[in-house]
Amino acid sequence: MERRCNFLAVTTILFLLTAHSLSVDKPRLQGFTVDHSDAERGLEEQFMSSLDARRARSIHKTLTSEPHIAGSPADRRTAEYVLQQFLKDGIEAQIETFEAVLSEPRRIKFDLLSPVTFLGPSPEYVASDQVSNNVRNPPAFNAYSGSGNIVAPVVYANYGLPVDYQFLQSKGISISGKIVIVRYGRCYRGVKARVAEEHGAAGLLLYSDPQDDGYHAGDPYPKGPWRPASGVQRGSVLYEFITPGTVEPDGSNVPRLPTLPLSYSDAAHILENLKGPAAPPDWQGGLPFTYHVGLGPAVVRMRVQMSQVVRPIWNVIAKIRGAQEPDEIVLVGNHRDAWAYGGVDPNSGTTSLLEMARGLGTLLRSGWRPRRSIWICSWDGEEMGEFGSVAWAQKHKAELQGGAVAYLNVDYAVAGNRFFAATVPSLKKFLSQVASDVPDPAGGTVLSRANQRLREDLRQKLTPGRPADAGEEPQPIGREEFEPGNLGGGTDYIAFFDHLGIPALDMKFDGSYGVYHSIFDDHLWMLKFGDPTFAYHVAMARLLGLAALRLADTDALPLDYRAYGQDIETYLEGIRNKLALLGDSGRLDFQPAHEAAGELVQAAGDQNERSSAYLLQNAQAPGLHDMNRILIEVEQSFLLPGGLPGRPWYRHAVYAPGTYSGYESVALPGIEETVDAGEYEKAQQQLGALTAALHHAARLLASVR
Length: 705
Ligand SMILES: [Zn+2]
What we know:
This protein is α/β, with parallel strands linked by helices and 705 residues long. The protein folds into three domains: 71-100 and 311-461 and 476-553, Zn peptidases (Aminopeptidase, 3-Layer(aba) Sandwich), CATH 3.40.630.10; 105-309, Glucose Oxidase, domain 1 (3-Layer(bba) Sandwich), CATH 3.50.30; 561-702, Transferrin receptor-like, dimerisation domain (Transcription Elongation Factor S-II, Chain A). Helix content is 40%, strand content 17%. It has 22 helices and 16 strands. It has helices at residues 2-23, 34-49, 53-63, 73-88, 162-170, 189-198, 210-213, 264-271, 347-365, 382-385, 387-395, 397-403, 428-435, 446-460, 493-496, 523-530, 535-553, 561-581, 591-617, 624-634, 669-676, 680-702, and strands at 92-114, 118-120, 142-143, 148-156, 179-183, 203-207, 235-236, 259-262, 299-320, 325-335, 372-379, 404-409, 418-423, 504-510, 655-657, 665-667. Strand 1 and strand 2 form a beta hairpin. Zinc ion (ZN) is lined by residues 335, 345-346, 382, 411-412.
């Protein structure tokens, strides 16, 4: 026993020496003192080298061995498995059970009645993938669809966006009482349901067009990674861009109309039996005929019977207690529930999360404790509408708003090798530094690969014979830098960011992912196409782990509100320009908001300087602790007391998922969306609320001494 300990101590010292020598030429970690930065880099090397792709592959195989929709016995088994993994890693963990109103199909049927007969839906089937033969495969349905038996003629409405219905109206085609067929893509499917309902549709068919993620994009599964003819995209149509995580008693966040998802082989029977005007060129899809908009002659019968049932769902929460600041918490989370097997979505994320936990467990065994607490969360009920994370965040609101430093999210983590990230402006530099310290399996670092791809894409946009669209001060493409995007919606970070005002971060490696939400999103697809060696799962575990370790151990929290203030100034300018283009320049007074954003930039700049001065002293500098406590509060200044217009659950003044995109980020949503609707009085109120929020944030930062 003793000898073994000695041996371990010697190897640890040797290891740390080697790690130290590896890390000396790297820049100081943002927020760390010089000495602490070197030690942290040593720790990170130890963490990164303890991760293992073969183990990741075996975790993934276990997690994806059976369909595990939220609230099912199989879902419970994945919760038990994840719990056991955390406990094996030496991390205290437990299952937290919540009751959720989940949506279940009772009857899912559609038939083409005329001009020819076709009875649907057809089963999902690919001969060489054994999941095709599992009798327990869940049916393809849209959670929270309305119920009904409808017989009606069909109209094709492209992507089902408001602009598509405007076009149909201009052609004199009425939607009222009809069944509308639209293709997936461009926005969240719940937005399509809402827009169809707003236009009086009786029913909605959602299908995956081969142009978007089928044979037009590349070889379909199993020859390639794209959607096979029978593959169906399931998914929720809950109006989660209004309220996620719950079914509102007044029904305001669920559609009333029945909706059904279709494969393109089934949808083709309907689409090729539409006449009326030919669809415009940008409405044409990838099926081998000219698309017409209808009306009819295709007549479809939809028989959809859905029920809402209260079921338990199971979050698994693992906690590493911070040695010095246990009440300051770094959260890392991913959902575990899947529409079917969850190969990419979400269990590539769960695999990365568990492999990260394994690495942290290795550090714990070597005697390390983080300065702050790290909580690792495996959410349930995400696919239905973020039920697990929203309920948990609500329950633990006081602790979280009192001490959460940041929430780090992965949903699906690996569908290929292209790095994507989104975060708040205050963490963009931090995230880039993390990505510059993790090797990319294809060579270089994750950041250098992302830069290389960005520059290749930009070069491709240079068209011979045409001048380039350049900004005011174009810089050489070779110097362009990858920058994370803004936070939108449709995944678990909304519970923390949009509702509680906790800085969040989201990452993935994306790719040719044509099996999204179908039964073919499984272990075999991952082995054939997504990440055959599981090297990208390890890369994601490293990214998550490094981000968590740095935020947990840092001396001064690396939250840069100067960058935040500058971005807000840019967004205000953008809306002002939009009004100018509309000829409505004088309608809103931007001056107070501009001044308040300027105050934030100023106060944050001063705080950044104080932070640097503290770090030059030492980690024990008086004032550092108080500064960190203040920094933890600043993001919450951006929460609007009354929430966003028409959707009070979303409270963040600076970002939200768009009401008509559902996933994509809208900056200054309260102002932008009221301006778009021509509601200038409301827009002015929102500008006032933003101004108050900016003043509050600036005052907090100015109180740093
Ligand atoms: Zn997901």
